[in-house]
Amino acid sequence: MSWELNADRPLYAQLIEQIELKICAGVYPPGSRLPSVRELAREVSVNPNTMQRALAGLEESGLLYTQRTSGRFVTEDRELVKRVKHRLVREHARAFLAKMLRLGFDHEEIMAALSMIMKESEK
Amino acid sequence: MSDTILECRNLTKTFGRIAAVNEVTLSIPRGNIVGLLGPNASGKTTFLKLCNKLLTPTAGEVLIAGHKPGNESKKLVSYLPEKTYLNDWMKVSEIIGFFGDFYTDFNSGKAYSMLEKLNINPKDRLKTMSRGTREKVQLILVMSREAQLYLLDEPIGGVDPAARDYILDIILENYDPATTIILSTHLIADIEKILEQVVFLKEGRVVFHRSVEQIREESGKSVDSLFREVFRC
Amino acid sequence: MLTKLLKYEFKATARLFLPFYLVLLVFALVNRFIDFEQLVAIDAQVFGFGVLEMFGFLARLLYFVLVVGIQVMTLLILLQRFYKSLLGDEGYLMFTLPVHPRQHIVSKLIAAAVWITASGLVTASSIMIITARAGMWEVLQRAVSVFGSAFGVTGFFVFPGALLAVMASGILMIYAAVALGHISPRHKILVSLAWYAALGFASTTLLFIFLTRIRAPLQEITGVINDGMAINLGIVWYVLLPAVVLGAIYFVLTNYILERRLNLE
Which of C6, C80, C92 should we substitute to test contact with B (largest number of B Cβ atoms within 10 Å)? Predict the structure, then answer.
């Protein structure tokens, strides 16, 4: 899972989204240790202060926690991760729906198209 | 230790009748990566040279960690000029020795490991190197100091996109929260993600000085597109 | 810091001077063993015309060119080490080192004085190599002992000291002229040359006034010349003092410009 940032939106918000995604996808499993701010900043090529701000945001929402000596960890609260997952599904689905509606499809057409694509990808 | 690493008041430098830097008043806090952005001849290089005392201001002053540019400030500042300024008859290893002799904050181990990563042989003389390689060597030397303020004039100007990524990586690798990096460039899109603040310069004047995230939040634009807007010809 | 500056200054200059010195000494040796009579004889026997003789002349000519060349090169490098390494692109490096401008000037000055002396000594040795004859050592020894009895042991320090002071003030005058030219917004080199001429003129005028105002030493000097060997060491002061004063003025001026008026464009 690579990092994709657009320079026209605040980066810290995008970083929060992408780290949430990575936690939900298990790239950073519950209880695992996150790389340091510096390492992450280098990996993504962003300003360390911006990365710091994003991680602080994630700490606030409880997805991450800091252990003073050993660094930053992903929460072990699987319920919380699940809730985030659900939120993400809803967010992405809503965004997708909005886009499709704008293109002029109605709900039925969108459902039909979706189930067709799902069937295709099953093969 | 004061929170401001660089401060200037009404800093002005004229060449003949042209003001290359015109009444610039600016305050840069510690722990920042600041982009000094502007089209050609907007005063970026002149500004950085004034901070290094390579030019004498016509009016106003600049203070680095509270010091006027001089011996004390030179100990704190690591400067990458826009030209190749090293003795080309020297071997890279000799230049590393030179930096180590004069700068107490120079970390030669760091320099050697960066050279190795870029496949530059320390036994080579600068004379035999391409322009791009020479620029990389200069950047490596400048970034191998553990300085408080790095002033980098067009650090990615003369190198190919692949090397550009590596240079940004070098900058991030060596950046720590106590240091400040001010870098000038006109290649904004390549660099804006590592910036925290930007200073737009136009004809020697500061157009504005803002946080990059604030720009994105308020205008919904990237710094690059804002730049194109401000400096539309 | 000064010793570090000197270390690099000598590193940068030695690689230019030493090979040149070596070539000069080798050429001196070659010239030493050129025996024109022999060459002419061989020419007559083997070639029938003056081939070797021509080579002999060429070697001699080249030696003279080298002798002149070394003096010119010494001056040029002295100039270049100040102009290019401080006021050219390399100045970006030198002036961002945590080193005071006066240390830069002193390091350049010391290196220049050493190389001027070395060039003089090497040239003198090369002449010795060519011209040394039996009995010359005794002549030299006699000259030294005559000098010693005239001036005493102090003479061996005072005269070279005065020479060094004059040399240093001459070098500093060049630095001051280059620095003054640097202030000018354009035609820096031309302005430097003009300043050099102006400083030279001003200095000799001042020296002249100084010497005429002080009658005694002038009489002393003329007296000395009339008396032949009855030279008093005191006259050296009249050379030493102006050199030190002028040198100090040039030094302060150069330092002021590098410290307060530097503009590397």
Answer: C92
pLDDT at position C215, please? 59
Q: Chain B residues with CB inside 8 Å of A53's CB?
A: 213
Strands (E) across chain B are located at 4-15, 18-29, 32-37, 59-64, 77-80, 149-153, 180-185, 197-202, 205-211
Question: C215-227 and C188-213 are packed helices; what angle lies between their axes, rounded to 10 degrees?
Answer: 80
Instruction: Kindly tell me whether chain C and chain A come into contact, counting contact as 3+ Cβ pairs under 8 Å.
Output: no
Cα angle B127-B132-B136, degrees, rounded to a multiple of 5: 90
CA-based torsion, C84, C86, C88, C89: positive or negative: positive
In a domain, C195, yes or no: yes
Q: Structural domain of residue C121, as residue ranges?
A: 1-132
* CB nearest A48 (choices: B175, B192, B223): B175
Tokens of C249: 């003025």
In percent, the amount of chain A with pLDDT more than 90 equals 80
Question: 10 Å Cβ neighbour count for C209?
Answer: 10
Residue, of C250 and C38, whose pLDDT is higher: C250
C181 and C123 within one domain: no
State the smallest CA–CA distance between residue B189 and chain C in angstroms: 29
CATH of the domain at B59: 3.40.50.300
Cβ atoms of A44 and A12 closer than 8 Å: no
Domain count, chain C: 2
Residue C121: CB atoms within 10 Å: 11
Kindly report the CATH number that applies to the domain delimited by A11-76.
Answer: 1.10.10.10
Contact between residue A65 and residue A75 where contact means Cβ atoms under 8 Å apart? yes
Residue C157 resides in a domain: yes
Q: Give the H or E element holding residue C170.
A: helix C155-183
C32-76 pLDDT tens trace? 888 777 777 887 788 777 778 888 888 889 999 999 999 999 999
In a domain, C138, yes or no: no
As for the ipTM of the complex, it is 0.93
pLDDT tens digits for A56-78?
Answer: 999 999 999 998 888 899 999 99
B75 neighbourhood in chain C, CB within 8 Å = 98
Beta carbons of B101 and C4 less than 8 Å apart? yes
